[in-house]
Amino acid sequence: LVHCPSLVLQTKGELVAGKETSVIVEFTNPLKQTLENVTLRLEGPGLLRTIKKQFGRIPMNSTLTWEVKFAPMRPGLRKLIA
């Protein structure tokens, strides 16, 4: 059985081109073991350049929270992917 872990992206404030805002990425480790050497990547064409961040350890059943500040580069409907 394959289980897809929970990943939540939540923006803070309104997304306006050129105006700084932030997004909060939350990842919960559903496994019964600690994850080590974890890399998260956040990207959004027209919103921000690809950002990678290394995390050392995520214990079992714990939630990692990562806040990224950025200013959307272009107006219009865009997708943010982590």
From TrEMBL:
InterPro entries: Ig-like_fold (IPR013783), Transglutaminase (IPR050779), Transglutaminase_C (IPR008958), Transglutaminase_C_sf (IPR036238). Residues 6-81 form the Transglutaminase C-terminal domain. It comes from the Eukaryota. Pfam families: Transglut_C. Gene3D superfamilies: Immunoglobulins (2.60.40.10). This is F13A factor. One of its GO terms (molecular function) is protein-glutamine gamma-glutamyltransferase activity. One of its GO terms (biological process) is blood coagulation, fibrin clot formation.
